[in-house]
Each structure stands twice: as C-alpha cells, then as structure tokens.
Amino acid sequence: MHDFEIFPEREEGPGSIYVEAADKVTLKKIREMTFVNAKEVLGIIYSSKTGNTQLKWRQTRRKNGKVTGEASPNALVNLVESEVITQDWVNSYLESSKQNNGANNQSKLNTEPN
Fold first, then answer.
1. Cβ atoms < 10 Å from Cβ of 2
2. Does the predicted model carry a pTM greater than 0.85?
3. How does DSSP assign 49-93, residue by residue?
4. How far from 22 is each of 17, 52, 53, 58, 101, CA to CA, in Å?
5. What is the pLDDT of residues 62-105, one digit of tens each?
6. CA–CA separation, 33 vs 72, rounded Å?
7. Rounded to an integer, what distance in angstroms lies between the CA atom of residue 70 and that of residue 106?
8. Rounded CA Rg of the chain
9. What dihedral do alpha carbons 80, 85, 91, 96 form, nearest 10°?
10. 27 phi and psi, to 5 degrees?
11. Cross-strand pairs, 39
C-alpha cells in the first residue's frame, strides 16, 4: 500500500529535496533523509548530487503541476519511469532540441504534463 502523503526530504546542498506544502509534519529522520507527511503539496524542489539536474514542480491545479528546470538524461529516464512526463513528450522534445540547438547533454524542461 502506498501513502501518497509521505515524501522524502534532504537538507540543502547537493542532492537536496524540499517539499512545499500547506500542511507538513516530520515523521522520521534516517541518516540524511527526513520523511514528512505533506498535505496539499504546492511544490517540490530537487537538485541532484552531481548538480546536473535542478527541477521545480509547481502545482497548477489539484494534483497537476508544471515541471521546470534542467535535467540530465538519467533524470529524464526517472521522470518517465515515475510518469511525471511521457516518453512521447521526451521524444518530441529531443527532436525539436536537435533541430534548434543540436544535440546536447542537458535538457531544459518547461512542460505541463498530462
């Protein structure tokens, strides 16, 4: 069973994860991870340990939101696997990116997934 109100957080710096919510309670801290119960999530800020990915998700309506930022290829795979974005969106984005800028290792995200 999944509890969709439980989120991990990690302190500022490389690999940080921060959940912005109307109501948030700390449940447990394990090493550098803190688990929180968050209701009415307004946004999530993520920065990878490598610094290659910096993403922000902002609520637009109820559980829907918009992801913006820069994502490494590995982060794109993780976003598709977690159904934050679709594989079709990635394919379309990469094709347009090649036409506009040539292929590059980083992808700038600005999307409102379905």
1. 5
2. no
3. TTSS-EEEEEEEETTEEEEEEEE-HHHHHHHHHTTSS-HHHHHHH
4. 17, 29, 26, 13, 40
5. 778 888 999 898 888 888 888 878 899 888 888 887 877 654 44
6. 22
7. 7
8. 15
9. -140
10. -100, -50
11. 23
